[in-house]
Amino acid sequence: MALHATSSRDSVRAAAEGEPEWAGDASRRPAAFYSAVFAQIEEVGWERLVSGKGDGGVSCLVFRILDDQGRNHLLEITLPMNYPSSPPCLVADVPYLPELQWSKGSRLKDVVCQFQEHLKILQDYWSIMDDIDKVLWVVDPTKPTFAMSHRRIALDHYQSKFNFITDSQYFKHIIVDGQFFSGSADKKFHENLSTVLDFALPPPPSVNIEDDEQVDCGICYAKHLPIDDELGTHSGGTTDYTCENPSCSRAFHSVCLRDWLRAITTTRQSFDVLFGNCPYCSDPVAVKITDR
């Protein structure tokens, strides 16, 4: 479930005003540092802030970033002691991180903007990976993340792991058993792969995922919603919506998915139903609008 801006702002400010966990006031940064960071968070948007921890709640900030296809990404930004003289450290679920352009006048919004531009570069990459997960029988990983750049797929008589070269032609070059092949730029990856292997590739099997195999919500990352009267019948509830794409099968709280869809500009509404795309595989999803 998306955090409200007031909750993030109040929690971070409260942490900054409290005592450090590990030492006395000597370990704290100058007061001007906290004011500057608060101002920079304001520029990015408190509604994007998921959490803040360390050194009064501002040393490590996690922001929620949506890419052009509505995929949900968490960007962790760690601020060094001599920030902003030194650039922050980034952690994110992407195949590779951007080379951060930084100067003493740079701010958190510059980091977020550069990360968003980096996500634009990766859109074709993820779209092709989504297509692979949807069209081919992927054996490993069973729950792919945005950072994973390999797939082990089942063939007619054996399983093979393919290394993908992610150049500007995105998956037009293929390495199979150490041999390099160039595919057609007019064909999709799985079509080029089928041509290289000279046989049709099997589609994914129809597999029912056990209920206890995935119980965490793909949006709020919790098994249960908070116990809150405002949530009504959903208070304390478990995940109650699953993506119908068998290669995805991500579970969500319908409340979280509804709030997430409402934040996406491409979401459509018809009567009491919201129509959009899964945050993970981009397949169509639909959720009813109900009172909490």
UniProtKB/TrEMBL annotation:
Q: Which GO terms describe its cellular component?
A: Fanconi anaemia nuclear complex
- Molecular function as annotated in GO: ubiquitin protein ligase activity
Q: Which Pfam families match?
A: FANCL_C, FANCL_d2, FANCL_d3
GO BP terms: namely: interstrand cross-link repair; meiotic DNA double-strand break processing involved in reciprocal meiotic recombination; protein monoubiquitination
Record domain FANCL UBC-like: where: 32-120, 125-157
- Describe the location of the FANCL C-terminal domain by residue ranges: 213-289
Give the matching CDD domains.
Answer: DRWD-N_FANCL, RING-CH-C4HC3_FANCL
Q: Which residues form the signal peptide?
A: none
Q: Which SUPFAM superfamilies match?
A: RING/U-box (SSF57850)
| The protein, known as | RING-type domain-containing protein
